[in-house]
Amino acid sequence: MFNMEALILVGGRVGGHTDTLCGSLSQSLSHDFSVRVMNTSELNVNQCTGCECCKGGRPCRFDDDMGMVIDAFDSADLIVFGTPVRFNGPSSQIKTVLDRFQSVWNDMDRLEHKVRRMCLLMTSGSDSPDPNPNLKIFRSFCCSFGGKWLGHAMLTGTDKGCGNGQSIVNELSDTISGSFI
Q1: Within the chain, where are the H helices?
Q2: What is the per-residue pLDDT for 134?
Q3: What is the pTM of this model?
């Protein structure tokens, strides 16, 4: 298992609850994976404008960090999305990255054909957020790229402190490890 790669795409601010939990998950996964963590708040990724410049195998009109994200996605066997819940949806930073995969969707031969396992780690300031809008978005993304959905974990009540985030990380790490046996 040590020759597999994991990409953790963090959609929260550096040092925030989501970033912290994704960092803990990275450490946990590093025993079995070569892990790359990319925080979308540190990337220069423009919003997809729907211009369709990328149709027919042509490159996106934006020359930004998205190429680096797509390359990391392409080489990964596991993709973990991390996002704070914002109005029951994902952060704008990670949604921008997801939307920019339109250029890959328009040229599916750009990616290595393999099944990538994907899962979602969410944090929420609320004690009782609705995870379903996020789950629909990330599951749809997973299906669009032929992935295998592993599930999700959510830490709630972060407005009151981080709570027991390590148990969430351990649970998700166990789910991930079990999927590769």
Answers
A1: 17-29, 66-75, 92-100, 102-105, 132-144, 165-179
A2: 93
A3: 0.93
